Amino acid sequence: MLNYVWIGMIGIGILVAVGNDVSDEIRNPYRNGTVLEASFDVQKNNASLTPTYDGEFVVPAKYIADIYGVAAPSAEIHQSARLILPASGVGTLEMAIGEGSPSIWKTMAVGYGTKDKLAGRVVAAKLSDDRKHIRVSMVLDKVSYVKIRAVTKAAIDYADIAVTLSLGLIGVMALWLGVMKVAEVAGLLKVLTKLLTPVTRQLFPDVPPDHPAVGAMIMNVAANMLGLNNAATPLGLKAMEELNKINPKAGTATNAMCTFLVINTAGLTILPATAIAMRAAAGSADPGIIIGTSIFGAGCATVTGLIAVKLLQRLPKYKKELEVDNG
Q1: Of 26, 72, 133, 187, which sees the most CB atoms within 10 A?
Q2: Alpha-carbon distance 285 to 271, whole Å?
Q3: 211 SS3 class
Q4: Are residues 204 and 268 in the same domain?
Q5: How far is CA 46 from CA 55, 120, 122, 133, 162, in A?
Q6: pTM of the prediction?
Q7: 51 & 135 share domain
Q8: Are 183 and 233 found together in one domain?
Q9: Could you read off the pLDDT of 219-265 as tens digits, one per residue?
Q10: How far is CA 179 from CA 172, 182, 183, 186, 219, in A?
Q11: Structural domain boundaries enclosing 137
Q12: Where do the H-state alpha helices sit in the chain?
């Protein structure tokens, strides 16, 4: 069911993006084809066969407001740019987009597939007598389908991030899964089960102390306490399967199931190995700094959850009598 939800959300996102892009094509908020008039202040003249100038593309803020209908961040916009004016043919101009750029230009830069550059075609240019200023008429490259491009780019970027983080987790997960398997084969699980019998009797009075469900639940809680969420998932499923075997009415959650679900969801953690590994893979300078806060936060959540589930179990409003399923 969850897969259908994700597919539906992705489909809705794509439809919304396409709808916005079609609307933009009709409204033309980026003023595709509009000729911009501006001054280019020359800072450096590169001597070459093709005249190339480095400098600033200067546009009054009011001019931008009149064309795009948006407010500019300052009275006069200065954009670092490079102007290429061949003796014959069409000239080009590239602008660097930064913090001081109009928001509409930032959006257009994203639409081009970049975040830091806008480019356009120079249709006319006139150099001043002192060769310090050039009057430029230009048309920025056409911007279209910005939203769907952004959705596609985000999907690719986050897929790359997911792969990078997954590779970073392999070592940590392999280590702790190996430790858990060794503990199981060595019989430490049976010892741990006996040690925790007083606790499990209080939390799960309806479950026999020697039932396989108890071992699965302890393994699940131990994996969660070590921060091995991926290892804890199959153990949690196994625990629920065993609990359902002693359920007088299959398919209806028992008190033991609800209590175990609360403990599992609260995620009591002593060593958040997965979170530490993810922080390390992301380049954190101190990936283990979260240990103290993780223990405190998960401890509070666990205690609160247990109090709530034990109280609700006793209230007639939330108490459901189980009937034996004879089917």
Answers
A1: 72
A2: 18
A3: coil
A4: yes
A5: 11, 20, 18, 15, 44
A6: 0.50
A7: yes
A8: yes
A9: 778 777 766 666 677 777 788 888 888 887 777 778 888 888 888 88
A10: 11, 5, 6, 10, 12
A11: 31-142
A12: 2-27, 61-68, 103-111, 146-185, 188-195, 197-203, 212-225, 229-245, 255-266, 273-281, 291-314
